[in-house]
Amino acid sequence: MGPAARWPPVILTSPPLLRVANLVKRYGDQTVVDDLSFEIAAGECLGVIGPNGAGKTTTIRMCLGLVGPDSGAIEAFGLPIPQRVREAKVRIGVVTQFDSLDPDFTCRENLRVYGSYFGLDAKTIDSRVPGLLAFAALQSKASAKPGELSGGMRRRLSLGRALINNPDLLLLDEPTTGLDPQARHLMWERLKLLLQQGKSILLTTHFMDEAERLCALASRVEVSGETVFFYTREPRPLVAALADDHSLRTLHRPANLEDLFLKLTGRQIRDDA
How much is the pTM? Predict the structure, then answer.
């Protein structure tokens, strides 16, 4: 498992919102997260890709202070995690892999109750709820309970709920798993809106198209035997420079996240744990 892509490519001129350095987590003899490092800047989406069981959810849980790493360091907004996680969580929104909505509350009540966990006063919460219901396209379902909603509606409600504290950073653990194509596209539109608003996102996924839509490949060079792979957002200068060297065989094609996925995880099929 590893960091997949970024949107947009950002030069870090200020301290990152989230910094993970050399993170390792083991369960018994199994290493679930192996020396993982990444940084997320303001307004950036960082995708972490990997097959089932690759440690994506464990990484999210460590960033939230729910699981302690065996080694490595985590900082959110300059605060060490888990030591000062309570302070950091004020600026973080979370959408877990599985719904954690309260089935006894309506959509509106789910937002209100969740807002109270952050110490927000009733007036502030009530002022935000209509906008969040609209963002989730659930205005007509404000009085409905989660059991009355489709899977896509519940995921959008979870995203809206994660925004009640107006967070700067969102941690999204496979937010579209189990959704049909239409619901996935609507979720992608909502996430793009958040990026345009300057929110930062850590996204775990095993969908290549999802990471490609929300993140962009970072430039890199890879050497394999006598072959050199160049991955770049602007290929024309490189192609022009190579055109006059007839001793080289070149192939120019669009890169995709499947290339990166196979590089990071290998080509062997792994059984789910």
Answer: 0.73
